[in-house]
Each structure stands twice: as structure tokens, then as C-alpha cells.
Amino acid sequence: MRDFLKMVKLTRLNHVPVYLNSDLIEHIESTPDTVITLTSGQKYVVLEPAEQVVERVVEFRQRILSRGGGGDDRR
Q1: Which residues of 22-55 are buried (b: 16+ CB within 10 A; e: fewer)?
Q2: pLDDT tens for residues 13-71?
Q3: How far apart are the C-alpha atoms of 36 and 45, rounded to whole Å?
Q4: Which of 44, 50, 51, 68 is 20 to 30 A (C-alpha) from 26?
Q5: Domain ranges of the chain
């Protein structure tokens, strides 16, 4: 699987797409722009409202879980 398919697609303020690893999101602020801070301290400002970012992360994780978690299912 390509790395960007493992991430959540969002949009920077200049309308350029950005793919973020949702496991690295530390917190999300609405200031009124949506600012996502990663565990590394790096910040991203995106067009999507905070609620939509959370929805995308939840949807992404649900897709992963519905596929069996991506683990090794050989028995």
C-alpha cells in the first residue's frame, strides 16, 4: 500500500492537498483557522473545520478496522 493511502487527506489554506498520519496528531485547534499540531511540534493550517478533521480520522480508522486491522491474519 502506498504511504499516502495510510493517511488522512486535508487541504492547506493555499488549496494544496496534504496527507497527514493521524497517529501523529497531538491536538487540533480552531483559532478560527484549523491548526493541527503533530507530536513532533510541526503545525499544519488546513481549510477543513476541526470537526471535519476528526470525522475523517474516525472514518479512516473505521476503514482500517473493517479490513481486519491490517495485521497478519494467516492461521
Answers
A1: beebeebeeeeebebeeeeeeebebebebeebee
A2: 999 999 999 999 999 999 999 999 999 999 999 999 999 999 999 998 888 888 775 55
A3: 6
A4: 68
A5: 3-66
| Beta carbons of 45 and 15 less than 8 angstroms apart | no
Q: What is the dihedral of CA 61, 19, 54, 28, to 10 degrees?
A: 130
pLDDT digits (tens, 9 = 90+) for 5-16: 678 999 999 999
Q: Residue 57 carries which side chain, given as an amino acid letter? A: V
48's enclosing H/E stretch is none
CA–CA gap between residue 70 and residue 35 (Å, rounded):
29
C-alpha cell at 15: 488549496
Is pTM, for the whole model, over 0.90? no
